[in-house]
# Entry
Amino acid sequence: VADVLIVGGGIIGLSAAYRLATGGRKVRVLDSSGARGASWVAAGMLAPASEASFGEEDLTRLTLAAVPAFTAFAAELEAVTGQPVGLLTEGTLAVAFNPDDRVALDRLTEFRDALDLRTETLTGRQVRALEPYLAAGVRSGVLASDDLSVDNRQYLNTVASAARSAGVEVLDGSGAGTVTHLFRQAGRVVGAATANGVEHRADLVVLCAGAASAGLLDLPVEPVKGQILRLQVPDRLRAAGEVLTHTVRGLVRGSEVYLVPRRTGEIVVGATSEQQGFDVTVTAGAVYELLRNAYELLPISSEFTFYEATAASRPGTPDNGPLVGRYDPGLIVATGHYRNGVLLSAITAEAVARLADDEALAEEWTPFDPHRFDH
Ligand SMILES: Cc1cc2nc3c(=O)[nH]c(=O)nc-3n(C[C@H](O)[C@H](O)[C@H](O)COP(=O)(O)OP(=O)(O)OC[C@H]3O[C@@H](n4cnc5c(N)ncnc54)[C@H](O)[C@@H]3O)c2cc1C
# Structure
């Protein structure tokens, strides 16, 4: 019998597992895919300012609180494992091409200023001074210097090794790791059953199955498909210095694209946002559009090596905010992180540890109670 059973070993489940284990609990994680869900596919932007959207002020307050939690967590993980997570601090540069793009960007900047998010408006010339390879057609930009990014795969691997060294047991695969249902006794959740017929019992179950969470509990979580590309800057280009240092987000004639650089020379190009159920196939049209928009923004990208096109399901919710809290006796829910799960992983892990100790959550969590959509 584990003290805590975690269902789903993506970035949310593994971060929570690590935090609970360092708090002295015996933790078992059940994961169906070997952590190859959204957390593996994601871009790794940690971007409260450039993700802030109209009507999502509560979410912005949470994502702002998530940044210091993330950097402290990342530093702890790097110290514990000796592995880097690939954190970059240059910030996000949002750029516009034509007058319409600029109007849209200006409206967002006004809204972000009203929330006291630190951004700085730049001319086309100032933008190109920061990123000399950007297209000549870029007319203006906004720099969000407090936004960060992380190499989500290095980070995920680091969290997984830290969790294992803290004593977390991970069972994965389609048989041993796939939970078919949670089971209850006298109204209390007391464990989970896996596809190989094993019943795992625990004092506490934490549901972190990402986009698949609604298959195990009646939650308003729906998959939102994202297709994304990984390119590599060839060494001959890198020899003259990095081709891209900031995360660049562009509105290219109304269509959004982002490029996220890594210290390794990888450049992530994303992403589509599609309501397609659990389909995670890669389509020719999406690859075409992402490459075309990347090329419009950064013409030199046509010389990069193309090495991966993937897709995953973001765990979407009706208000785009996560579902984190006590759900039923014996059950905590930590899912629905939609576009921000990597950023929110550390602060969610802290929240889960507090909930496990029956402690109250910080105020910024109040709007994200998992029962808020109950009728
Ligand atoms: C294209 C794309 C780009 C993104 N970019 C960013 C970004 O830049 N920044 C950011 O913060 N976020 C980003 N996100 C969002 C982020 O990836 C997610 O919010 C986050 O990964 C959610 O983490 P998770 O652990 O809940 O889900 P997942 O990583 O999907 O993990 C869920 C795990 O549960 C397992 N599972 C499912 N069902 C079961 C079951 N029945 N039994 C056992 N295990 C089960 C799955 O196999 C999986 O490993 C992006 C997402 C996509 C798709």
Remarks:
- DSSP finds ten helices and 19 strands in the chain.
